[in-house]
Design goal:
It is built from 3 helices and 13 strands. By secondary structure, it is of the alpha+beta class. It has one domain: Alpha-ketoglutarate-dependent dioxygenase AlkB-like (Jelly Rolls, Sandwich), CATH 2.60.120. Bound molecules: succinic acid and manganese (II) ion. Succinic acid (SIN) binds next to strand 6, strand 12 and strand 13.
Length: 237
């Protein structure tokens, strides 16, 4: 069962669960992310064509990971720098998906974004997946941010709201292809990463040590019929 009531913000298909993870669960998740980073070090993605670096750093867990470089945006089974398979999706993340995604298969990809104080993410759609029937489920940890969401067209009106550590956003249904982005980080609004001893090494988070924001975005990439052997997600609660 979801640990908090979904808020309907007036955007069809967008659900916001404030404080979905309590502090203890957030700290446990940070420990899991640290393990993912040890196996799959955060890297700086680059814009297609121009090669301009993103202001966020990224890594992934799951069978597929999202990467971006001069050759474009794509999902791939291996880390772009180490060539190794991505680490498996931690059980705690699969559980969140099982509780709220309302989708019969496990997520294949979890993109982990690391935002320093000055990092942001421009308005974009998540549309590199083949299966738009599955929602995008996104967990925020650490410093708060101003999250912006609009409609199906870049020019549609947008609205913004603050996301705090432990909040979960679901973009599903009519909002699955909604434009969204991160306008700004509010540095120093959370002590989670400092207290969890999240090392700056490799994370790309800014000084002082441990400040910044981590966002985890779980996605289904292929359609269920393309991966016949995919086990249905058990343990829904
Ligand atoms: C993303 O759209 O990839 C990240 C969104 C966020 O950081 O909340
Ligand atoms: Mn996105």
């Amino acid at each position: 069962m979801a640990k908090s009531q979904a808020l309907n913000l007036g955007i069809d298909g967008l659900r916001l669960y404030r404080g979905y993870l309590d502090r203890e669960a957030q700290a446990a998740m940070v420990a899991q992310i640290r393990q993912v980073c040890a196996a799959a070090p955060p890297f700086t993605p680059r814009m297609p064509k121009s090669g301009r670096p993103f202001s966020v750093r990224m890594t992934n867990c799951g069978v597929l990971g999202w990467v971006s470089d001069e050759n474009g945006y794509r999902y791939q089974a291996t880390h772009p720098e180490t060539g190794q398979a991505w680490p498996p999706l931690p059980q705690a993340l699969a559980r969140i998906w099982g509780e709220i995604a309302d989708y019969p298969c496990v997520p294949e990809a979890c993109l982990i974004n690391f935002y320093r104080a000055s990092a942001k993410m421009g308005l974009h759609q998540d549309r590199d997946e083949r299966d738009f029937a599955a929602p995008v489920v996104s967990l925020s940890l650490g410093d708060s941010c101003l999250f912006r969401v609009g409609g199906m067209r870049r020019s549609d009106p947008t609205r913004s709201f603050r996301l705090d550590s432990g909040d979960v956003v679901v973009l599903g249904g009519a909002a699955r292809l909604a434009f969204h982005g991160v306008d700004r980080i509010y540095p120093g609004t959370s002590t989670l990463l400092t207290e969890a001893g999240f090392s700056e090494a490799g994370s790309g988070l800014g000084r002082p040590k441990g400040t910044g924001r981590i966002n985890l975005t779980m996605r289904r990439v292929t359609t269920p019929d393309t991966v016949a052997a995919e086990p249905a997600l058990n343990g829904r609660s």
